[in-house]
Design goal:
4-stranded antiparallel β-sheet; 18 strands; 4 helices; elongated
């Protein structure tokens, strides 16, 4: 790769990370300096702290994995176990068996007290510990994916998992609508739960069968110039993998990447209080 192209790639990656950090900045404090050893396979990732200018709370960092196929963000609090970055090799006298210490336990959700997911080990979950020199974080390959509660990344009948509200009413077929919402469309309020979709009167409806359905419920008009909602409506799904907001997503909404041995992946650690990149390194994926 030429030096010019390398600079261009670096600039693009920096712009992407800057976009992720947007909205996170709460002060002008500088980010701590840090260096990590990165071990990445198609089945796991380990991050070991080589040096830090000061101890860093894991709740103050976001880990971003980027390659040519996509970008994945792993955030504390949301991504803990079994799919998040958990601290390893921390001796815990108050946890049976001294806490979890080996990589395969990171992705095991069992009742054993030595497993990552056991409540005795919550201090070792991403967001609950402080990084110091020598700390090691590890995650399984499930951390790379936008995995839902039932282990699907894309809902049945769809080719992607992110939509705007206009795309839902403007591009979904009646079959897709029915598979998600059933016969719940109403002009009455269904509350503000993330599983409730709210659409405004006047929004255009793209699918003729969907327009007929909503017209039959007295919620739309199906005219030759185009079908539109005539009332503000709500619809609710029973699939809690869905979250409907300005952007509607199926899964956690933090993106996902697919890794194969030989792929080049950029690992970036963002210091969220400052919004600054604390560490960035491009590594080659090894076969597990």
């Amino acid at each position: 790769m030429s030096q010019a192209l390398q600079r261009e790639v670096t600039i693009i990656i920096a712009a992407v990370i800057s976009g992720f950090a947007g909205g996170l900045v709460t002060s002008q404090e500088p980010a701590p300096s840090a260096s990590f050893d990165v071990s990445l396979t198609d089945k796991s990732i380990d991050l070991t702290v080589r040096s830090l200018s000061e101890p860093i709370r894991s709740k103050d960092i976001m880990i971003v994995l980027s390659n040519a196929g996509g970008t994945r963000k792993v955030v504390p609090g949301y991504h803990t176990v079994p799919f998040g970055f958990n601290i390893m090799e921390q001796v815990r006298t108050d946890a049976a068996g001294g806490g979890f210490k080996d990589g395969h336990n990171v992705s095991s959700l069992t009742d054993k007290t030595t497993q990552a997911a056991h409540e005795n080990n919550t201090v070792q979950w991403f967001g609950n510990y402080t990084l110091q020199t020598g700390s090691r974080m590890s995650a399984s390959d499930n951390a790379f994916k936008d995995v839902c509660k039932d282990n699907r990344s894309i809902p049945d009948g769809f080719t992607r998992a992110t939509f705007t509200k206009k795309e839902i009413i403007g591009t979904w077929t009646f079959a897709q609508w029915d598979s998600v919402f059933g016969d719940t469309a109403t002009e009455n309020s269904l509350g503000s739960d993330p599983t409730v979709l709210k659409l405004n009167s006047g929004t255009e409806i793209g699918d003729a069968d969907l327009a007929d359905y909503l017209t039959g419920k007295g919620l739309a008009t199906n005219e030759s110039t185009g079908a539109k909602l005539t009332k503000d409506i709500s619809a609710k799904t029973t699939d809690t993998n869905w979250a409907f907001g300005q952007t509607c997503v199926y899964g956690d909404g933090y993106g996902g990447i697919s890794l194969s041995p030989g792929d080049r992946v950029t690992v970036t650690i963002v210091h969220t209080p400052s919004g600054q990149t604390m560490f960035m390194k491009t590594v080659t994926v090894k076969e597990a």
